[in-house]
């Protein structure tokens, strides 16, 4: 019962996020982008498909409305369902537009519309590269009796791959020094060391992440303070 309640809460929260995204879309506002942070958009890859489906649904709504003119109850019910479907499709695109990936000084926030958000500390990123590929097939489960390898923290798993695809593709791959948690819409949690995502300007996103990694390396405090030439160690008197 608790598990089912948690799923319903997550779905309700998702519903609220895409509805709020529609309002932000109409007012040309973004969610979660603070001054000094860089937005990395990704919605363009799915725009044609979403708008095409929305047009088809709108035409179907008009056609059903005419065909069921003699059945007012059925026509009203289907009208509500069809209008909701159109709004949901537009909300799907609105969430992708208004909730871009965000690169901050310390954290890279990767999003999948209103469904998923992954926070990756910049210090944990080992490498980032342009890597255009289509989404993989579902991973096979390990055979019975075979243990899942532990990660550096001693936790099982942590070596998997998370894909935040747009339009069936990803274009940037991150390799991490340690695992991060990815919580999916229905609550499934993954510990992964490789994250693949899409950005409209994938090469620009790669350059921006690399620049932030270099900036962090320059500002990180050193372990040892170099001794000035010509001076010995200073001993307390």
Beta-strand share of residues = 15-25%
Q: What count of helical segments does DSSP give? A: 4
The overall average pLDDT, rounded, is 84
Order of helices and strands: HEHHEEEEEEEH
The residue ranges in which pLDDT falls below 50 over 5 or more consecutive positions are 137-157, 223-237
Form type: elongated
Tell me the span between the first and last alpha carbons. 70 Å
Keywords:
4-stranded mixed beta sheet, 4 helices, 40% helix, 237 residues, 24% strand, elongated, alpha+beta, 4-stranded antiparallel beta sheet, disordered C terminus
In short:
By secondary structure, the chain is α+β, with helices and mostly antiparallel strands. It has four helices and eight strands.
Tell me about this structure.
This protein is an alpha+beta fold and about 240 residues long. A hairpin with a 5-residue loop joins strand 7 and strand 8 (about 190-195). The longest helix has 27 residues, at about 70-100. The protein is built from four helices and eight strands, in the order H-E-H-H-E-E-E-E-E-E-E-H. The protein has a four-stranded antiparallel β-sheet, covered by helices on one side. Residues about 135-155 and about 225-235 have low confidence and may be disordered.
């Amino acid at each position: 019962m608790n598990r089912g309640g948690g799923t319903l809460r997550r779905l309700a929260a998702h519903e609220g996020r895409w509805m709020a995204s529609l309002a932000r879309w109409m007012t040309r506002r973004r969610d979660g982008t603070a001054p000094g942070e860089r937005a990395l958009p990704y919605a363009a890859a799915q725009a044609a498909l979403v708008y095409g489906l929305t047009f088809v649904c709108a035409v179907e709504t008009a056609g059903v409305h005419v065909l069921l003119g003699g059945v007012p109850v059925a026509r009203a019910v289907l009208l509500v369902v069809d209008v909701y479907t159109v709004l949901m499709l537009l909300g799907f695109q609105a969430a992708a537009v208004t909730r871009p990936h965000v690169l901050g000084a310390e954290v890279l926030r990767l999003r999948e519309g209103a469904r998923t958000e992954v926070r990756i500390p910049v210090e944990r990123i080992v490498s980032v590269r342009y890597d255009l590929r289509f989404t993989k097939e579902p991973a096979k489960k390990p055979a019975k009796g075979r243990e899942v390898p532990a990660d550096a923290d001693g936790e099982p798993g942590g070596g998997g791959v998370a894909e935040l695809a747009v339009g069936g593709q990803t274009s940037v791959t991150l390799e991490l020094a340690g695992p991060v948690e990815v919580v999916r819409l229905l609550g499934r949690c993954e510990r992964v060391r490789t994250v693949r995502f899409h950005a409209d300007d994938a090469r620009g996103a790669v350059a921006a992440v690399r620049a932030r990694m270099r900036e962090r390396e320059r500002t990180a405090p050193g372990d040892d303070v170099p001794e000035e030439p010509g001076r010995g160690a200073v001993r307390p008197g």
